[in-house]
Amino acid sequence: MNDWRLLLTRPAQECARQAAQLAEAGVFACCLPMLEVEALPDDPQQQRCLEALPEYNALIVVSKPAAQLGLALYQRYWPGAVQMQPWFTVGAATARVLEDAGLQVHCPAQGDDSEALLALPSLAQALAVRTPRVLILRGTTGRDYMAEQLRSQGVQVDYLPLYRRLAPIYAEGQVLQTCRQHGLNGLVASSGEGLANLCASAAADWPQLAELPLFVPSPRVAEQARQAGARQVIDCRGASLQALLQALQKHTPDSSRTTG
């Protein structure tokens, strides 16, 4: 496993944390963030949602930034309040942010995606009321699949946007240059938006980078990667460090595919 040399593309703080964790496991990783997270200013929509929080039967948090920002607002609007309704997250890392604050959180044991969350019996139980309502804490944009599925079941779904995602700007050729400089032999894209930004940032160099093994968190992002021309797509079935490490253990880097 320590023959892997990876390009990580998460937002800067998460990227640095993941690189340090991989180093402890004997895996070299280089950070080139493909997403930036910018918190939104307070607005009337946020205030209305937070004041009406007890009216929701479930709160769904889709990312770590949403958990961190949402938790801060929750503690501001409802200081000292006991847990009013169940919290749900797509992934275990997001759940830990809330659990560290003393909240009880439900998340899928396998799979960090909307499909896995929607299959949770605890979510169905929380929504087994006459007029179920769900609040989804997320960024200004994102996948609408979860909301669409819940609405098709008669659930009222509201969004609470907490941040916007921005694409960092890199000089022409910088992505390929970074991979060559460090002799990287694998790419990691932790979301569909991060993958799209990686392809756009690589620009004319993407066909060459697409020859490298690309680790992704879900079947949906895997299909997106194949459509973008990635030649070897490895679905980690989760965005966690453990999911990535398990995928690395199952695959051996091909010495003929390197940018070094």
UniProtKB/TrEMBL annotation:
The keyword Lyase applies. Transmembrane segments: none annotated. It catalyses: hydroxymethylbilane = uroporphyrinogen III + H2O. Residues 19-245 form the Tetrapyrrole biosynthesis uroporphyrinogen III synthase domain. Pathway: Porphyrin-containing compound metabolism; protoporphyrin-IX biosynthesis; coproporphyrinogen-III from 5-aminolevulinate: step 3/4. Keywords: Lyase, Porphyrin biosynthesis. The keyword Cell membrane does not apply. Its EC number is 4.2.1.75. It is an enzyme of class 4 (lyase). Belongs to the uroporphyrinogen-III synthase family. Catalyzes cyclization of the linear tetrapyrrole, hydroxymethylbilane, to the macrocyclic uroporphyrinogen III. This is Uroporphyrinogen-III synthase. It comes from Pseudomonas fluvialis. The lineage of its organism: Bacteria, Pseudomonadati, Pseudomonadota, Gammaproteobacteria, Pseudomonadales.
